Amino acid sequence: MANAISKTAYYTLACRAEDARQPRPLCGDTFAARFMDDEARQVWARFQSFREANASNAGRHQIIDALVQEELDRAPDARVVVLGAGFDTRAYRLRGGRWLEVDEPAIITLKDAKLPVTEAKNPLERLSIDFAAESLARKLAPYQDSRRTHVIIEGVLMYLSNAQRRDMLAVLAQVFPHHAVYCDLMRATFQREYGRDLHAVLASMGASFQDMTDTPEATLLEAGYTAASSTSVPLRSLELAGKRGPAFVVRRFMPKVRDGYRIWKFERS
């Protein structure tokens, strides 16, 4: 991949592929294995020891799955946009939705070869963009309208600067004035105390977190969003795995873990 951050797409992919192989998968992304080529396996080899973080990656995916599925059950024809889609396969797994995946040309080309849009059980379109050189607003302009849109931004925001986050949100407000955002937000304290070693590996691949803060939701609230829900990734991952004891400990006695990494749903209308 030309873009270093794209290597994180291989990491999150490998987490889901490994999860799907388990007797009790948290996410169950059975399509992930299609993309596990030599490069993916090389990336995965550097992360296999981070078992809790890897499980949380599958858990966060499932949390977003459930939130989006709840909306699609009410409005099966709703539009879903996946920004920085990576190897996302939700258009193949969830019930309903008219899907648009947006990412770098190299990823889109690989996805088209290994998981064609014709195999998706829902309408799916892929849009390639060089994020560093092309205008997101210009790329999304043909899709501009006022209908309610669901925008998934998973595993992306922590790699952007505050200015880049604000710019992205401004584009979304312009193109999709009535939309919901589903994203993962990590507190600086959580990253520093629980994710330092994992982040060191990511940084060695050229994908460093930027402008971390203990109130990451503030950027979206200041941009005019309303928080609709917030779900603890570590806690929910333990619950999905049926680990009641550890889940109880995290819920009652480990607020920094419980609250440090969450899936947020924001509304803008």
TrEMBL record:
The keyword Methyltransferase applies. GO terms for biological process: methylation. It comes from the Bacteria. Keywords: Methyltransferase, Transferase. GO terms for molecular function: methyltransferase activity. Coiled coil: none annotated. InterPro entries: Ppm1/Ppm2/Tcmp, SAM-dependent_MTases_sf. It holds the Pfam family LCM. This is Class I SAM-dependent methyltransferase. The lineage of its organism: Bacteria, Pseudomonadati, Myxococcota, Myxococcia, Myxococcales.
